[in-house]
Amino acid sequence: MKTPGLKAEWSTEQQTAIQLLAEGGHSYEEIAPLCKVSTHTIYNWRKDPRFMDEVIARARQLLKHNLPDIYNSLIHKAKKGNPRHIELVLKHLEKLEEMKAKYAENSITFTWEAPYVDNNS
């Protein structure tokens, strides 16, 4: 299974392992047969810093792709009154304001404001 966005230097088996490791929730024993390699091979690949850099880069791509859904879920739970989710939203807003101020000091334009869209209507 060739995965779009992964470097050509990785074999098809390694690309499959990279994708599955980046997704998380899979054991070596589950990944190995899908890659047609042994669990020991998966273990050895994970010892290679370049391989793990690729896993981390792919995990970041997956997270970035899912961030809108994550934010919407967080906000939805906060609006329902969940104290932990309210705290997370407020902390995130505080961090965004800090970033905005930092960028303003360096004359970099930054905005995170977006039109409100109610997905629950």
List keywords for this structure.
single chain, 121 residues, mainly alpha, Arc Repressor Mutant, subunit A, 5 helices, elongated
The helix tally amounts to 5
Q: What Rg, in angstroms, do the CA atoms define?
A: 20 Å
CATH architecture of the largest domain: Orthogonal Bundle
Tell how many strands the DSSP assignment holds. 0
Mean pLDDT: 85
**Could you name the CATH topology of the largest domain?**
Arc Repressor Mutant, subunit A
Described by strand count, sense and barrel closure, the largest sheet is: none
- The parts where pLDDT drops under 50 for at least 5 residues are none
Q: Report how far apart the termini are.
A: 39 Å
Overall geometry comes to elongated
Q: Give the % helix.
A: 55-70%
CATH class of the largest domain: Mainly Alpha
Helix/strand/pairing category:
mainly alpha
In total, how many domains does the architecture comprise?
2
User: What letter string, H or E per element, gives the SSE order?
Assistant: HHHHH
The proportion of residues in beta strands is under 5%
